[in-house]
Amino acid sequence: MRRVCANFVPRLLTTDQMEFRMFVAGDLFQKSSQDPTFLEKIVTADESWVYAYIPETKMRSSKWHTKSSPQPKKSRHVRSNTKVMRISFFDIDGLVHHEFVPSGQSVTGVFYVQVLQRLRDAVRRKRPDKWKGQWFMHHDNTPSHTSFVVQQFLADKNIPVIT
């Protein structure tokens, strides 16, 4: 007998969820097989928390000591309580647009539509080839992304969404 630890996984998926992921992966594979430039047309969105702290430099933490005094100790950096959400949009060529969510603002459907409007302007300026042709939006299924207001905006602007 030996002691075995379980592997940590973020979430255990149901059979339906696994089948849906297989369907989506197969659909994306088929689209990329039919159109070799399909992956170049995708703009992906991602949100992440950015923690703010000012690390102390090595020079700033140095102190004068005598030979007999003990070595100074310094603790590891820890995340600060100050954090802000960053919404980033990127494609195969790199970052297309990013912005920080103002403090106290929650990401709702109405707010996300405003972000998508600024994204369209960024695509028009930075990726004129995507602007002239068709490009696809890829974001997760958070409530702000799947809200009716966002879906209506994307439909009005003729921006297809990849599952």
From TrEMBL:
It comes from the Eukaryota. It holds the Pfam family Transposase_1. GO terms for molecular function: nucleic acid binding. Signal peptide: none annotated. InterPro entries: RNaseH_sf, Transposase-MT_Hybrid, Transposase_1. This is MOS1T transposase.
